[in-house]
Every structure is written in C-alpha cells, then in structure tokens.
Amino acid sequence: MPLVDPVTMSSSAIVKGAVGPSASATKATPGTQGTDSATASTTAGTSSSLATLRPVHIKQTPTAQTVRHALPAALTALYLLRFDALVADPVPVMRNSLPVVAALQMTYALLCLPAAGEPASKSNRKPRPGEKKKGGEIGSSTIITALLATVLTSVVTPFLYFAMVLFGAPFLTHGSHTFLCAAHLALLTLFPLFYVHGVDSAAWAAVAGFRAPFDETFGGLVGGLVGAWLGAVPIPLDWDREWQKWPVTILCGIYGGYLLGRVLGGTLFWGKRF
Amino acid sequence: MPPKTTSKKPPAAQSQQTEYQAIAAKFAAAKRAKEAQDAAKAQAAGVTKAAGGEATAKKKEQKQQEDRVSLADKQRAALEAKRKASFESRWLWTAGFWVWMLLIHVVGIAYFTSGFLLTRLMLDDKSVCDAPPTLNTSINGAVDILPNWKSKGTVDGGCWHPKTFERAVVVVIDALRYDFTVPVKDDAPFHNAFPFMYDTALASPNNAVLRPFIADPPTSTLQRLKGLTTGTLPTFVDVGSSFAGTAIEEDNLLMQLRDAGKRIVHLGDDTWESLFPGYFQANLSRAYDSFNVWDLHTVDNGVIEHIFPLMKRKGEWDVTIAHLLGVDHAGHRYGPDHPEMAKKLQQMNTFIKDLASNIDDDTLLIVMGDHGMDSKGDHGGESEDEVEAALWMYSPKAVFGRTKPEYVTPPATAKTRPVNQIDLVPTLALLMGIPIPYNNLGHPIEEAFVGPRGNAWDKLAAAERISAAGIKRYQTSYFSARGIEQATTTGSPADLWEKAEASVPTGKVKKGHSWEPVFEAYAEYQKETLDYSKSLWARFDVKNMIIGIGIMAAGIISLLVYINKRTEDDDALVIEDSELDHAEKSLELQGITADEGHYLEKRLFRAAMLGAVPGFFGGLLQSYLSGNGDWYRGSAVGAFTSVATVLVALHDAERAFFNVLPNTLWGWMAVVFTVSQSIGFASNSYTIWEDSIQLFVMTTFGIATALSAFRMESLPDRYMAIYHSILFVLLGRLASFSKLCREEQMPYCTSTYYASATSSTSAPWQLFIPFVAVMILPSIIKAYLTPSKSYEGLAPTWIGQVFRAGLFFSAVYWVLDAADNGNWLPVISSRLSAYLPNSATEALSTLPPLPEKILKTLSVYTAQMILGLALVAGSTAFVWAPPCISIVTTALRRAPSSKDDPLAAIPGAQQTAQVTVLGYGNAHGARYLLLPLNFFVALFLVSKPMGAGALALTLWQSLSLLEILDLLSLPIGSNPIGPIMLAILGQSAFFKTGHQATLSSIQWDSAFIPLYSIKYPWSPILVVLNTFAGQILVTIMLPMLVLWKSGPKRRGILGSVSRALAVFLAFYATEALASMMWAGHLRRHLMLYRVFSPRFMTAAITLLVVDVVALLVGLAGVRVNVMSVAEVFGWAD
C-alpha cells in the first residue's frame, strides 16, 4: 500500500483520477473542516450539487491577492507587446507565447486558486495540531493537480479546434493557425477550471450548462467564449487591414474577453448566475 | 409520448373495408368501449351506493346504459360534424389572412421597385438628315470643319458627314469575350481558337481593326441591343421587360436606316424581331428562338446557311444583321472551359473568314460581341469578364487608320484602349451617311475616320464635333424636359462645350491647321457628358421607395403583433382527460361554446378588408381627382389602411403593442440572428460573405443547444439533445463544403459546386453524391420515425420504396445528363472497340446506330416521370393516406370479476384486449412528413448533384432541429427560435445549392431538365424551384414544428401553425425590408448593382416565393393532415 495523505487521499501512486478520490475525501470530512461553506463546491453529488456549486474564492494570502491583479496586467502587456509580431506572422508568435501563457496561468492557478479537492479558503482557518499547513504554500498535490489540468487542457484542445472548424474556420488550410488559437483558448479559459473542478462531472455539467456562479474562472470562460465569437465579426469586412487575417481577431477577442470576464467575474458579477 | 393504450372488446368482424376505414373503425370502437366503461364505472359506483344489488334495477340500468350509448353516438356524430365545419371555416379565414399578408408584401415590393429600379425619361425627338445638330448648338455659327461635300445633307452623299460605305453586314456573336479573340499563352479551350480577326487586324491594319468593346451593364442581350442601336445608357427598369422584349420606341440606328429607305435583313436571335417589329425584309430574314440555351447549333447553322446566299444578292438589301448564339449557349451550358466552346469558336473563326472573303469594297463588315461571360459562362452583371466584349471592323478597301503606329497591334487585354459599345452608333451612322440617333451619347471610333494614313485629323475632328453637337442638343432638350438647370462651373459639360466650340477656328482656315486639339476638346466634352449622364440616370423615385419601405415595415409590425397576440391561447393544449373533454363536448352541443365564430383570423381578415377596400378606392379616387395618373396609388393607400385596421383589431384583442420583445435567451437569440443579418446587409462585405455567416449562426445555435442540454435532468434526454445538436452542426458544416463563390469572394473562396471554377457541369465524382443520398436518406428518415413508432401505415411503402425510387431516378437523371454533355457514348464505344475482338466490333457496327439525342430524350422522360411521381402521385397519396399509425391488439386476460363489478353489465367486457395505437404520439407529424418528402424529390431532381447532396443534408438537419426543439421543450408557442432557425437553414441551403445573391448565379439550364425547349409557365417554375429549393423545402417543413410529436388530441394546431408561419415570414420579411432599406439608402454606392441591388431582388423574390408556398402547400397540407387524423381519432377542437 502506498502512503496516502489523510486529507486529500492523494498519493504519488494515484495517477489516474487523483481528483476524484480527493473529492470524496472532502465529502467524507465535512465535519472536521466544515466552517467554510466553500467546501461544498467540491462535493461530488448528482443534480443537487448544481444548486450548491459555489463560486471559487481566491486565496486570501497577500501573494495570491497580488498575483490575482498582476497577472491580468501581465497577460495584457504580453498581448500588446507581441501584437505587431502576431499580425505580421501569427503562427510563430502564437507558438512561442504558448509556454509563457502556460507559465502565467500555472502561476495563477497555483498561487490564487484552490486546487480540485482542496478546501478553498484554508488560510482563514488555523492549522490544527498535527496537520500540515497547506493553503499558503504549494504542496506536491497541487502541483500534480496543476499538471493534470495541463494534460486535460491539451486533451480538449483538439475538440476546440474542431469546434472552430465547425464555426467555419478553414478546414484544409491554416491548420496550425486554428490549432494554436484553440490552444490559447483552452489554456486561458479551461485550464483554471480544470484546476479548480478537476473532472467533477456535476461541476462540469453546471459549467457547460452555464449554471455555475460567476467567479474568476467561470467569468473567464464566458468572456473568452463570447470574445472568440465576437472576434469573428470583423473578419469579412473589406477594410484590407493586416490584422483582419486569421486568427488575429479571434485571438484578440479571446484575450480581451477572457481578461474582462475574469476581472468582472471576480468582482462585479461574483456569485451571480445566469 | 408513449403509445396510447386503451381496452376494448375483441375486434368485430371487418371484412371488405379499406385500410383507412378499418383504422378509423377500430379506433372508434376502442374509444367507445372505453367511454362506455368509464360511464358504466361512474354509474355503477352510484348504483352500488344507493340500491345495493337488486336485479331489476340492474336490468333497468343496463337498458338505460344501452340507450345512453346510442344517444352518445348520435351526439358524437353531430359534434364531430360541427367541429369539422368549424375547422374548415377557421382554415379559410386563416388562409384569407395570409393572402392578405401576401398582398401587402406584393404591394410593398412593387412600390419600392417602381422607385428603385432606375428610369430614364424617354424623348420622342428624332434626328433628321438635313438638320445637323450643329445648326442650333454651335456657338460661333454654322462653321463647318470640312468643306462641303457632294450631296451634303442627303442620304446619298451622307447627311452630316461624307458617307463611306453603301452597305453594312453586322455580325453579333453573342457573348464573344475579348480574350477569346486575342492570342493568350495558355491551353484553355476558349483561348487561341478564334485567331482570324486578330491576325487580319495585325497584318492589314488599313482593312481591319480589333478593339475591346465595353458593354454598359446590365449585360443581358436585350439591354445590349438597345444600347447598341440607340447609343444611350440602359437603366435597370428595362431588365424587367427583358423576358417580354418590348419594341424600342426611341430614335435608333435601325429607325434611321429604315427612314432613309435602307432595306434591313435580319438573321438569328429573335430578340431583334421583338425589339424592331416590322423593320426587316420579311422574305430574306430568318429569326430563331433565343432562349433555348440547350441548343448550340440551330441558330448558328441557320445564320451560316442563309447569310452566304445573301452576299451574292447585293441588290436586295443594304444592311444585314446576323446574330449568332452558339458561343453564348455553350457558355451557359458548359462554361467556357469545355471542348464544345473551342469547337464553337473554331466554327466562328471559319465563318468570319469565309464571310470576309465575300465582302465587297462598298460593304462594311462589323463583328462584335454584345457582352462577355463570367468564368462559368453566364452574364447579366457588371463584372469585368461580363462587360468586356470584342469589336472588329473590316473592309476590303483601305479605310481604317491609326493615330499612333503602336496602335496597330490590337490590345493584349481589354484594359487598354477599350471602346464603349455606344460608340458604335455614331460610327456606323456616319460611315453609312445617316443621321446619328437623337439620344446618342457615344462618339465616333477614331480608326474609322482618321484615314488610312492616320493623319486626317480634320475629318476626325468633324466627326467628333458633329456627334458632340448631337449630344449637346440631346442634353439641352433632356434638361428642359425634366426642368433641370445645367451646371456651368469649370469642368462641367457646358463649360467644356464652350471651350471646344472656341477651339474651332473661325473664318478662313490655313492649310495645315492642326485639328488634333479640336478633336481632343470635343472628345473631352463627350467623355464628361457621358460620366455626368451615368450619374444623372441613377435617378430614383425616393417617394415611391419610401412608400414601399413603409408598407413592408407596417406588414412586419402587424406580423409581430400577431405573433405576440397568440402567446397564450394555444400551444400544446392536449386534452387527454376524457371527462373534461366530455364536459366540453356537452357544452358545445348545447351551443355554449367559447369562441364559435370569433376566431382571431376571422376578425383580422374582416378588419383587413374593412381597411383595404375603402383605402383602395379612396386612393384611386384621389389619384383620379388630382389627375396625376398614378392609378396604382390606391393599392398603397389600401395597404396602409388595412394594416391600420388590422392593428386596431389586434389591439381590440386585448394585447399590448409594446410587448413584442422576447423574454428568454432563445427568444433573444432569434431576434439577434434576424436583426444582425439585416444590419449586415448595410455592408457589402457581410452581404458578400453571407454564406459563411449563415454557417456561423447555425453553429452558434447548435453549440448553444448542446450546452443548454447540460441543464437537463434526464440523462438519456440530455445525451439525445447533445447528439442531435452536434449532428445539426456537423451536417451544416458538411453541407457548407458545397459552394459556388461569387466573384467578390475571390481569391478567398474555392468553388466546389461544379467540376471546375470555369465550368457549369458537374464532375464525374459528384454524380455519386445523389446515389449516396438514395442509399442512406430513407433509412435516416425511418430512424427519426421509429422512436415514436410512426414508421407505420403508408410510411414504409412510401418512404422505403416510392421516395427511394424517386431519389434513385433523380440520380440516374444526372448521370444521363452528364453522359449527354460529356458525349460519353461515342467515347465508350470507341474504348470498347479497342478491347473487343474485331468480329465483335464488326457485329456492333452492323447494329443500327442509336437514334439522335437518345440521351436527352431518355433524361427528359426520366425527369418528367420523377416530377409526376413526386408532385402528382405524391400529392394524391398525401391527400388519401391514412395516418401513419397501426393498431395492435393483444389479448388481455382479466381476472374473473366479482358480482359487484359494474363492467359485468357490458357484454363481453370480461374478455378485454389491450389495444395499442402505434404512432399515436406522433400521429400528426409522421403523416405530414410525407408532404415535404414528396416535394423534396422534385427539388432533389432540379438541383445539380452537389446541390442535391446539400439539400439531403438540409432535410436531415431540419429533422434534427425538430428533435432538438422537442427535447429542449422549445415549442413554438413560447419561442420564436424554431421558425427562425428553420428560415436560416433554408437561407443557408440557398447558398449550398450553388446560388449567390447575383444574377449570374441563376441556373437557367434547370428550365430544361424535363423539357426540350422553353414552355410557359413550366420553365420559370422550374428555375424558381431550382433557385429557391432550400427555402421551399423549409417552408414546407415549417408546420412540422407544430405537428412533430403531436398526438391526435393536440388542440389549436391551425393557430399554432399560423403563428409559426408568422415568425417564419417575419424573418424573410425583415430580410427583404432590410435589403430594401439599405439598397435605397446606398443607391449611390459603387457596389449598388453588384451587391445591394441583387441582394434586394433575391430577398424580395424569396419572400414572395415563401409566402406562396406556405399558403398553397404548407397551410393546405395542414388542412388535409388535420382532417385525416381527425377522421380517425375524432376532432380535438
């Protein structure tokens, strides 16, 4: 028997579905941790959890709060700095910026977001004797969650690519353009959600049905999707601008929409539902 | 809905009944038994309470029971008859309401069109030989540039200019594009096949001139002939008369020739006969049918046969006009990139060569194209390929010169040194010595007047001046007729005219005076005037346009209020509660009915008439009294007043006017989809890329429904909804691979509809597409019917066999057509003979040869058979078909009943049986589906193979759409999204079936699918079926939104269908209104005739087609369907 963490039930041996068991572990221990209602967000239930899916709290540590505001600014800056290069030649720019964006999103997830299976705002709570302090620091389990979220993100990217083709993206040409665009979309909007919700089917059903409450992750998703959708609007215009080339406007919409959605979802609309 | 079960007695003997009656009888018996049981139960409950088990009482009960049953039967029959009559009258009122709406649309569109399609004031003035225009326009007196010539001012010597030729032969080769006549370094079949004209122009420049010949759009033959003979600009209004071919009343070349006593002979295209009736020498002229585009050779062979004898009989004519159509027809039928085109051009080459060798010194030979053709061989628009024709002038005597040595080589492309087509008019007139027609705006072609040495500037200046003076005279009278002041600012025509006149030296002219600046000054005046006139005749009647827009807008408002009005009173009112039903029925029998004779549609129709009649006659009277003769004003006033009264009637029906905004996400989606597209028509880009936008919109809807499905509690339903949503999107994307790019989409678009971008025939692999549809489509439809157990009754035979056979023969038709076009038979037989032993080949050759045109004959018969099967037999079957249900009886053993059991009172009740009506829950939908399927076969046939595949995918998509709407519970009552998505689906199918909102994308050859030649009214109907196949299909599918998954007890079907239709038509009416508004607003836009005007025409015709189909097929189908279902199951309301 491999060693199992008593709280998260996660261990180095559990590779597949690390999130699942951890979710059930949380469920099993509500009594011990249950002052914060946000724990319910990870309870795996059936339809009842749709109603109880709670918005994600950003960690209350000073680092988390700083990073939360700094990262959107960093993404904006990155986008604006590389915009001219992007317009000139989209593929290399999108490819080279992908690891940078991944690193930024990874930092954001690790520092600001509660990992799947991890109670959200532990920093409010005094660590009990004998228990390892978790919230403020990055444990190995959160890194595994982050890595798994990365894997899941790359798994869904082809589906997003396919969805873009369905919307009318070129099918036989511009393959790498569309694929990299899908990768950016996935990394921005879906990676934080994978990190927060894991593969909790009920949570994902709520997210897919747009019933989840607004928070930074869900707001980012809605914003990114709406932005990508609106990004298609200027393409047909006969303005003969260089930036109308595929997929610059889509990417622009994705970034603009994501950042706006993430900021608004974390502030103005927090906790609201459609 | 699960199959309904009910208990009944064992089936009575039923021998020689039809299936229809059998089903009805079975169901009636089952229902009666059920009701009797229910009644008996209630009775018995009371009885047992009151009297216990007395035998006499029981007997009495039984007697009463029987009486009651027979009384109930009578009552039921009376009620059913009443309900049937009520349905029929309600249907009539509803149809009346939609006829009214159709009329509103017709009046609105007609009004707008009358103001939008350009009109030019026609002047009746004629030029006269002895009154040259310089007389009254010249500023410095009648100074002549040329010294007097012999017989000046008469036809013999030349009216306004010395005459050069006695006779002229004008050969029009329809659609002779400029690049067909010059050397081009490639292997295209349409290049380098017609070198004669180029070679002669190069080798003997004094005898021949070849120049590009630019047509003024629209590039239809009739418009071009008007331009080529009157010398003035066409206006769009003339297009409308293109099919009727009305006579030209304006002053024109032929009129001048006739008045000068010249004898004119005409050979070829009969459009000339309709434009110039009675002008031609009847004994020598030969006219041929011009619209038979299938026929490449009859006209050409006729012309060639008759023109050479004429050349020998010189004393009998002065002008011969020959109009050949083979090149144009080859373009229409095959596209330029086809061996037939090369053959045709080679034939023309030989013909012109032979003709030139038969011309004498006193005769001018002119060969020209009246327009070009686009990359698919069609024309009508104003793209470069369509307007660039060729002009070649030839004479055996040295007449022609060049002002510069480099002009000897004909231009390599039509972009350099082009000639306007109207320039031919003054050129020909002056060369023949007749007056230039009064309305001419062209100027003489310099090669014809500058002399063989290219230095006769005085002659050229004189010709230029006399034609400029004609233009000046025309402009002056045009402006005074319209009451407009001419501008005199610097650079204006008036200013340029004064400058040109001032450049003419007065008094004695020195020998060697340079006339070139004089020529330049007049040429500049002519050019400026032409440009000015082009902008001037873009003159719109803004008042009529606004009235048209107003009528359309009023119609849409009443549609929206009507939609909103019906929100509550209908929708899925299913009465399954037999007691409530029973109670209602008895109320109705006593005459206490809720809305007897008070249908909304009845009130609306009456209101419409109340408004329309006084309005119409009032308008008539007013226009009569005011005396300005616009008698059609009555229709506009009538339209407005009737809309007003209808709105008042709707308001009386207690409905707030401003409650038209949607209140759900789906409702908003419907509004956004409709409105955003309408706004998009303001931009030429969005209009050009409309096909991509439709796909984007449909995918958005599909993804939204898939995501929305995650909200569903039931997992099987959720997965089905996701499955159908994704299927809907996938099929839409798959179908979008079939497209025909419009010119403006280049180079970002690849056409796939035809074999290549320069062809209008299908590639061999595309012929397999319809066969794939034959194999899978019937099974797919079956798969949609099976879950509701509706693949019963007529459905298996009709869908599995008749429908499949129809599709199969359509697929065969296109193979026959391809074999005919590609000339496969000789190819195959020659290939065969290579493989067969000699003896077999000899044996084959002894067989009688196949009759001429066997393939065409076969394909015409196939097509006629399919259309007969689909439309005649199909409609008959639809009218007579029983519902797609079947009644299954299974024995059900009852437990022995106690003495107290009231059912003991009914004989035989103990041995009840379980009766299951298969397909009960979808009784309306499954039966109605047969109607769209019948029409689908016809549409499948008239669409080319690629389009047939796209239509099949559209049908499949529409079935998925029905399932999505059903699963997500988006019934039509609460949601406009269903009809809107169906409308968008139809609109998108329009693009996928090889059409664009341009004139040149009309597939005229579809008129010949079941016919050999043009036949009215069938040919136009076939073209409409081909063009609007997508919209027609979804219009017929529309009632399915209400009927699908509707059982016999569904109430208010007619109201719901009418409401769905209102939403559906609101979409098309909004598109028509928007394209109308934008076309009107952007009437000075550069892209008006290329983008906005064709889009308006497409939207307007689509709206009218959809209106008519909805009324004649959709509503009529619903009537038949409801009555058939009610005949079996009884009336629900």
TrEMBL record, chain A:
<keyword id="KW-0472">Membrane</keyword>
<feature type="compositionally biased region" description="Low complexity">
    <location>
        <begin position="31"/>
        <end position="49"/>
    </location>
</feature>
<dbReference type="GO" id="GO:0006506">
    <property type="term" value="P:GPI anchor biosynthetic process"/>
</dbReference>
<dbReference type="InterPro" id="IPR009580">
    <property type="entry name" value="GPI_biosynthesis_protein_Pig-F"/>
</dbReference>
<comment type="pathway">
    <text>Glycolipid biosynthesis; glycosylphosphatidylinositol-anchor biosynthesis.</text>
</comment>
<feature type="transmembrane region" description="Helical">
    <location>
        <begin position="138"/>
        <end position="164"/>
    </location>
</feature>
<keyword id="KW-0256">Endoplasmic reticulum</keyword>
<dbReference type="GO" id="GO:0005789">
    <property type="term" value="C:endoplasmic reticulum membrane"/>
</dbReference>
<feature type="transmembrane region" description="Helical">
    <location>
        <begin position="176"/>
        <end position="196"/>
    </location>
</feature>
<protein>
    <submittedName>
        <fullName>GPI biosynthesis protein family Pig-F-domain-containing protein</fullName>
    </submittedName>
</protein>
<keyword id="KW-1133">Transmembrane helix</keyword>
<keyword id="KW-0812">Transmembrane</keyword>
<keyword id="KW-0337">GPI-anchor biosynthesis</keyword>
<dbReference type="Pfam" id="PF06699">
    <property type="entry name" value="PIG-F"/>
</dbReference>
<feature type="region of interest" description="Disordered">
    <location>
        <begin position="22"/>
        <end position="49"/>
    </location>
</feature>
<feature type="transmembrane region" description="Helical">
    <location>
        <begin position="217"/>
        <end position="236"/>
    </location>
</feature>
<feature type="transmembrane region" description="Helical">
    <location>
        <begin position="248"/>
        <end position="270"/>
    </location>
</feature>
From TrEMBL, chain B:
<keyword id="KW-0812">Transmembrane</keyword>
<feature type="region of interest" description="Disordered">
    <location>
        <begin position="38"/>
        <end position="70"/>
    </location>
</feature>
<feature type="transmembrane region" description="Helical">
    <location>
        <begin position="692"/>
        <end position="710"/>
    </location>
</feature>
<feature type="transmembrane region" description="Helical">
    <location>
        <begin position="765"/>
        <end position="785"/>
    </location>
</feature>
<feature type="transmembrane region" description="Helical">
    <location>
        <begin position="1056"/>
        <end position="1079"/>
    </location>
</feature>
<keyword id="KW-0337">GPI-anchor biosynthesis</keyword>
<dbReference type="GO" id="GO:0051377">
    <property type="term" value="F:mannose-ethanolamine phosphotransferase activity"/>
</dbReference>
<feature type="transmembrane region" description="Helical">
    <location>
        <begin position="631"/>
        <end position="653"/>
    </location>
</feature>
<comment type="similarity">
    <text>Belongs to the PIGG/PIGN/PIGO family. PIGO subfamily.</text>
</comment>
<feature type="transmembrane region" description="Helical">
    <location>
        <begin position="545"/>
        <end position="563"/>
    </location>
</feature>
<comment type="pathway">
    <text>Glycolipid biosynthesis; glycosylphosphatidylinositol-anchor biosynthesis.</text>
</comment>
<feature type="transmembrane region" description="Helical">
    <location>
        <begin position="1099"/>
        <end position="1118"/>
    </location>
</feature>
<dbReference type="GO" id="GO:0005789">
    <property type="term" value="C:endoplasmic reticulum membrane"/>
</dbReference>
<protein>
    <recommendedName>
        <fullName>GPI ethanolamine phosphate transferase 2 C-terminal domain-containing protein</fullName>
    </recommendedName>
</protein>
<feature type="transmembrane region" description="Helical">
    <location>
        <begin position="91"/>
        <end position="112"/>
    </location>
</feature>
<dbReference type="GO" id="GO:0006506">
    <property type="term" value="P:GPI anchor biosynthetic process"/>
</dbReference>
<keyword id="KW-1133">Transmembrane helix</keyword>
<feature type="transmembrane region" description="Helical">
    <location>
        <begin position="865"/>
        <end position="892"/>
    </location>
</feature>
<keyword id="KW-0472">Membrane</keyword>
<dbReference type="InterPro" id="IPR037675">
    <property type="entry name" value="PIG-O_N"/>
</dbReference>
<keyword id="KW-0256">Endoplasmic reticulum</keyword>
<feature type="transmembrane region" description="Helical">
    <location>
        <begin position="797"/>
        <end position="816"/>
    </location>
</feature>
